[in-house]
């Protein structure tokens, strides 16, 4: 009986994380959480202060979804109580879930890359932040893009799906390569090779190469990707031949984690050819554009002003 309940919960929680539960299934999960909240018992000696523990859980949820919201106070206790129940079922008894060491990898003014213990490679843009476990264990390989942009080359492993949390969406793959671009306004997933599932807020789309998912204003849509993004320009030299300044700026924004400000939008239509070396600094690229166009660029931290 316990095993059947455990498997049912695993099934429903996995569906909910991918935004594929029905209203009835989602209500069942909500009712379960509330029931456990009402009936939960807390051992102060073993578990510590329930207020502090539940607040930590609540804060982690906030970090996962990437924004602050006002919730009813009992919701954080529901989360804590539900975890107690799942512990009783053995659902979270795997050491990798409770005690797995999490590492935060941050970049400053230049992109950097990292290889995870499963062989996957992550190319992180400048001014970005990525969190991953020291070692993958269990049924899934779960990581988080906390800020900025990244290119993922995921090692293939059909038995252990690779899951990336970024803002309010989740990207699920087995082995493929793709961009994730996370900003305050939206999140994009752009597929270069393989197949990818993107879900969030009860919505889900499947992507193949040359397609992208855009999550914006609580809506998830699928569309064709810009050809300029169908390479790993974090780790490859790129030539943008006879393109527009707007296209070049778009690449620079994602690669270097900056935003551009300009008084005259007409300059965006300026045609040019630019060579961006994989390890070039932002200043090097801007000097090249300045030489071609005579435009002036002033860098203020994560903001570039165009005159």
Question: What's a concise summary of this model?
Answer:
This protein is of the alpha+beta class. The protein has helices at residues 2-17, 23-39, 44-47, 50-65, 74-89, 95-98, 245-256, 282-293; strands at 102-106, 112-115, 121-124, 129-133, 141-153, 162-166, 169-173, 177-182, 186-193, 196-200, 203-207, 211-216, 219-224, 238-244, 259-262, 271-276, 297-300, 303-306. This is FecR family protein.
Please, could you describe this protein's structure?
With 307 residues, the chain is α+β, with helices and mostly antiparallel strands. It has eight helices and 18 strands. A hairpin with a 2-residue loop joins strand 17 and strand 18. The longest helix is centred in the N-terminal third of the chain and has 17 residues, at 23-39.
